[in-house]
């Protein structure tokens, strides 16, 4: 810090300054703010914004004062984090002062400007004026510098006139060098306990590259047991990926998969818990320095197979091994695995996402035909990274992605390390609200997804369906790949276009089929295309007339916390005033269902009567779930109340009320356990 004698700006300079300012304002208007971090997104800026004048934190420790002929030195202490700085004031020729503040023990030497001054300034002899525990004052010619201890302040006088003050408003801040926070998980068990206490689970990433490092047990055991994939010359193949030089376990060898799956045991996988699950990435395998970013086609696997013959199924064996490992680790608990590479059969073990997409409207759009193609090929558990992995989405794209992605089976927000932070809480209230609404809609429909996956596991019917799957004789739907059906009852037209004010929705099923907007129950007649107005809050989604949709409408922070929550049944009547649907429920995580620990329920509405009946009579699950509400869409007119009958409840009267121009009728608090068969009659 240097002090120079003041200069007076003349008019010309002032004019130049204003012109410059004007120029800055003009160019500011043209800048896209979205390209820059906000203060909240920069830890440096956040720290500095927190500094307030009423909270002085620096004090000059005058007990440590050292006085010489031409300098004053003392410790300057940051009382917030106890970092000690070195304060020095030097008296220079021409009656000027020089103040330098630096760390006593910086992590590394700080860069000091050279060349800006024409050589080192000449020092001059100071005169001590005053010194006590709170103040020290020195004189130089006609000038004076007074240093105050607490709060730290330096005042410069010309004669008796105060001309400059260091830290006059306690806003002085010295950013000491700090260790970049290295994210280390020092207490993995406690961390996971803390996480699972909120109903969430930890998924950790495991890739197939084994680091070639002496002392790494896995590498050494793989070498000594001959478990690695070989080159064509019979040497252990070595590729390059995240860990650096890596080799790859030969998963075509049953001894290797047995060995590898056992490494998921808690005493091998230190820091793991029973609720920790796995994301298998790069399992094609991806090899940075290999041909086509994988291993050479002439690498040799167990059984003598060249990699060219087995490449496509490598990912299958990798996730199967993980699946076996998790099941051995935590018996009778369904493993969760997310995989990038997969093959026919992988649907038994893992969910898949569509790989490294980008924050681009076309990538949002294509996630639908991609997942729909996989679904009709037998792999339903599919989704795309919300927001796009590479690059930064603008808020419109981000919101649309949350809204659209909620209707694919796998729903995950993800981003590349180098992209701008995009956690929902970083955005304005209205953006947060839209994202929250998308998440709530997603969670409300979890019973639908769960039921569909149960049925998928029994019948192989895809969970999400292109229109052609459900309406094969309707030639209008042949090339519609941007709309989808969730099961057969929910029709969704995600908004995948920027600044859309309308979107075209095709309603299949013929003139007898009516679809109801899930927000306002507005009806749309089948086999026609309608231009539907949309706002940023609107994603066109419809229930099929004739379907019964089980939902859990109480918002929670995690699916696991919804286990015992009550249902709302949305009974959407068709032209004949009837509807039907199913519900599957169980404990949500064990294989108890293989021993018939589940409920599979059929709902039917006909002749003003809703009945529930257990489909698999020999299956039982003592659920705490109950029926909170029934919403009849397209209800019969003139209903005054309702009546419920069940074994446990006997016969009870229920209140009903019409809502929204009589487009729906709400039956309040049936209160019946889902385990019980029941009959609700509208009266
Ligand atoms: C777990 O939570 C407690 C209580 O909030 C906290 O003190 C502790 O630091 C947390 N542990 C870890 C490893 O995050």
TrEMBL record:
This protein's UniProt keywords: Glycoprotein, Glycosidase, Hydrolase, Signal
Stretches assigned to the Glycosyl hydrolase family 31 C-terminal domain:
461-549
**What are the residue boundaries of the Glycoside hydrolase family 31 TIM barrel domain, all occurrences included?**
184-452
Which biological process terms from the Gene Ontology are attached to this UniProt entry? carbohydrate metabolic process; N-glycan processing
Query: InterPro entries from the xrefs?
Result: DUF5110, GH, Glyco_hydro_31_AS, Glyco_hydro_31_C, Glyco_hydro_31_N_dom, Glyco_hydro_31_TIM, Glyco_hydro_b
Q: Which Pfam families match?
A: DUF5110, Gal_mutarotas_2, Glyco_hydro_31_2nd, Glyco_hydro_31_3rd
GO molecular-function term, one example from the UniProt record: alpha-glucosidase activity
CDD domains found in the cross-reference section: GH31_GANC_GANAB_alpha (cd06603)
Which residue intervals define the domain DUF5110 in the entry?
A: 568-626
Pathway connected to this protein: Glycan metabolism
The residue ranges of the Glycoside hydrolase family 31 N-terminal domain are 87-181
The signal peptide stretch is 1-30
Similarity comment text for this entry: Belongs to the glycosyl hydrolase 31 family.
From the Swiss-Prot or TrEMBL record, give the protein name.
Answer: Glycoside hydrolase
């Amino acid at each position: 810090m240097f002090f120079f004698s003041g200069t007076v700006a003349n008019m010309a300079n002032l004019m130049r300054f204003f012109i410059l300012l004007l120029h800055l304002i003009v160019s500011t208007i043209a800048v896209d703010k979205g390209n820059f971090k906000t203060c909240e997104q920069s830890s440096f800026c956040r720290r500095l914004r927190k500094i307030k004048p009423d909270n002085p934190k620096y004090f000059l420790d005058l007990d440590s004062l050292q006085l010489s002929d031409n300098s004053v030195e003392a410790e300057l202490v940051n009382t917030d984090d106890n970092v000690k700085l070195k304060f020095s004031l030097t008296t220079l020729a021409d009656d000027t002062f020089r103040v330098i503040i630096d760390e006593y023990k910086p992590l590394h030497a700080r860069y000091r400007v050279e060349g800006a001054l024409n050589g080192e300034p000449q020092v001059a002899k100071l005169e001590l004026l005053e010194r006590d525990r709170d103040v020290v004052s020195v004189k130089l010619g006609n000038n004076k510098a007074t240093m105050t201890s607490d709060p730290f302040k330096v005042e410069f006088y010309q004669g008796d006139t105060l001309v400059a003050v260091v830290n006059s408003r306690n806003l002085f801040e010295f950013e000491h060098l700090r260790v970049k926070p290295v994210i280390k998980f020092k207490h993995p068990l406690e961390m996971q306990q803390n996480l699972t206490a909120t109903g969430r689970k930890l998924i950790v990433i495991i890739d197939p590259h084994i680091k070639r490092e002496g002392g790494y047990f896995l590498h050494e055991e793989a070498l000594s047991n001959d478990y690695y994939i070989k080159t064509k010359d019979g040497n252990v193949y070595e590729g390059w990926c995240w860990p650096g030089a890596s080799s790859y376990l030969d998963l075509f060898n049953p001894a290797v998969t047995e060995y590898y799956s056992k490494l998921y045991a808690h005493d091998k996988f230190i820091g793991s818990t029973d609720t920790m699950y796995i994301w298998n990435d790069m399992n094609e395998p991806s090899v940075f320095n290999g041909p086509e970013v994988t291993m050479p086609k002439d690498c040799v696997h167990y059984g003598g197979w060249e990699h060219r013959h087995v490449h496509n199924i490598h990912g299958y064996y990798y996730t199967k091994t993980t699946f076996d490992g998790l099941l051995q680790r935590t018996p009778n608990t369904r493993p969760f695995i997310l995989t990038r590479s997969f093959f026919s059969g992988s649907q038994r073990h893992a969910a898949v996402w569509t790989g490294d997409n980008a924050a681009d409207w076309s990538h949002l759009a294509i996630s639908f035909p991609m997942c729909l193609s996989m679904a009709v090929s037998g792999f339903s558990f599919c989704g795309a990274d919300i927001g796009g992995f590479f690059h930064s989405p603008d808020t419109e794209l981000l919101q649309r992605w949350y809204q659209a992605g909620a209707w694919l089976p796998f729903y995950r927000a993800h981003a590349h390390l180098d992209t701008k932070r995009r956690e929902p809480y970083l955005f304005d209230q209205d953006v947060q609200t839209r994202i929250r609404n998308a998440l709530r809609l997603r969670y409300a429909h979890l019973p639908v997804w769960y039921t569909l996956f149960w049925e998928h596991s029994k019948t192989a019917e895809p969970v999400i369906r292109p229109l052609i799957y459900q309406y094969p004789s309707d030639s209008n739907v042949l090339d519609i790949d941007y709309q989808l059906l969730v099961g057969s009852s929910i029709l969704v037209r995600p908004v995948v276009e920027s600044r859309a004010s309308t979107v075209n929705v095709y309603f299949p099923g013929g003139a007898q089929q009516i679809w109801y907007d899930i927000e306002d129950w507005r009806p749309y007649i089948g086999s026609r295309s309608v231009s539907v107005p949309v706002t940023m809050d609107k994603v066109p989604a419809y229930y099929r007339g004739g379907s019964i949709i089980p939902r859990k409408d109480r918002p929670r922070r995690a699916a696991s916390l919804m286990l015992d929550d009550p249902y709302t049944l949305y009974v959407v009547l068709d032209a004949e005033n009837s509807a039907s649907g199913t519900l599957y429920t169980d404990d949500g995580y064990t294989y108890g269902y293989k021993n018939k620990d589940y409920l599979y329920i059929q709902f039917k509405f006909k002749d003003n009567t809703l009945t529930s009946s257990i489909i698999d009579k020999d299956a039982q699950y003592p659920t705490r779930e109950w029926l909170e509400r029934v919403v009849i869409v397209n209800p019969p007119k003139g209903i005054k109340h309702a009546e419920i009958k069940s074994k446990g409840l006997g016969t009870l009267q229920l209140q009903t009320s019409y809502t929204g121009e009589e487009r729906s009728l709400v039956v309040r608090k049936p209160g019946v356990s889902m385990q019980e068969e029941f009959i609700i009659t509208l009266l």
